[in-house]
Amino acid sequence: MAVRPKRLGGRPAGERRREQEEERRRAYPWRAWYGTAIWRAIRRDQLSREPLCRRCGKRGRIEAATVVNHVEPHRGDWERFVGGPFESLCKACHDGEVQREERAAARRAMAEAGVGG
Ligand SMILES: [Zn+2]
Fold first, then answer.
1. Does pTM top 0.85 for this prediction?
2. Residue extents of the structural domains in the chain
């Protein structure tokens, strides 16, 4: 009778990726809200009312918006998530914003854990 050999040196990469994904879902459960019908309706409505990137517009550039951003971070608050206010952004502006937000959140978490200054 064959015995499956024990794996040495850790688990397959796919398994680790799934765990990381699971970790993110636990840390940011509101990410699932972006898949809801109400969010899709909000997004469609916002992009039809404001089809150009607001931040590019402030710099005198005309760029099509593809992302609806919360002007005030909703921080997992459903009322804010669906209530806005919103702004239309292009992907480049949005990604820059999200990265800045996530760095700030990471700094807050570290400060709360007593790490760093
Ligand atoms: Zn932009």
1. no
2. 15-112
